[in-house]
Structure formats: C-alpha cells, structure tokens
Amino acid sequence: MKVVYPVVISQGKDFLISYVPDLEINTQGKDLIEVIEMTRDAISIWCVCQEDEGESLPISSDICEIIRDDGDIVTLVDTDIAEYRRELENRTVRKNLTLPSWLNEKAEKAGINFSQTLQRALKEELSITD
C-alpha cells in the first residue's frame, strides 16, 4: 500500500525540522535530502504501527490547506508501506541453486559458506550496503 502525506519543513538552528500534520509527528535532518528520508521513514513506521494495531490510516489532507510560516517548505512525501515491511523483515528463505559439481567440490574443500557467499554477491550486485 502506498501513501502520501503533506509535510511542513522548517529551518531549525543547525538542522531542518519536518512536521506531518495528518499524523502529528516530527523528525529532523541535517539537509533537505536527509529530512525527507527521515520523514519517509517516520511516516512508514507510524503507518506500520497503525496497521499492526488494526487502526485505519488517516486520509491525506489537501496540500493547499496546510498552514505554514514564512520560509517553510510544504511538500508531499510518499512511502510504500508494504515495501517498508519487506525491507525490515529479517526472516530467512530457503533457495535451491545449481552449481557445476567441480565448483561445489572446490568450495566445500575450501570451507566456503554458501549462504554467506550468495548473500554477499547479491548485495554487491544490487549495490546494497550494510
């Protein structure tokens, strides 16, 4: 499920502060990119908790109706709650794979952990950093 909420971003002393009026939550970041990332994360966490408690999510307000002060930025921040859940899920899944027998034998003799090696290779291929 994808959601989008209006956000008010204000300048703090050394950071930016974001406020999501529909959810009544705040977060902050050192620059615009970070504050939007933090806001997306905060919205995702809030929505996951609401869903887990069996509560419905509020309907997004009209961005034109959002009250702001001079200098504030009003924007929309979206998130995919289902995708957020998948990224946080740490359960393992079993995968069956095929290797040439000679490669399997060499890897076993070398004491290679197949699961760790495959995970490392997939993360590298997908440009995922821990």
Topology:
Layout: E1 2-11, E2 16-20, E3 25-29, H1 32-52, E4 73-80, H2 81-88, H3 101-109, H4 114-125
Antiparallel strand pairs: 1-2, 1-4, 2-3
Explain briefly what this protein structure is.
38% of the residues lie in helices and 22% in strands. The protein has 130 residues and is of the alpha+beta class. The chain folds into 2 domains: 2-88, 2-Layer Sandwich (Double Stranded RNA Binding Domain), CATH 3.30.160.250; 93-130, no CATH class.
Question: How does this structure look, described?
Answer:
The protein has 130 residues and is an alpha+beta fold. It folds into 2 domains: 2-88, Double Stranded RNA Binding Domain (2-Layer Sandwich), CATH 3.30.160; 93-130, no CATH class. 38% of the residues lie in helices and 22% in strands. The longest helix has 21 residues, at 32-52.
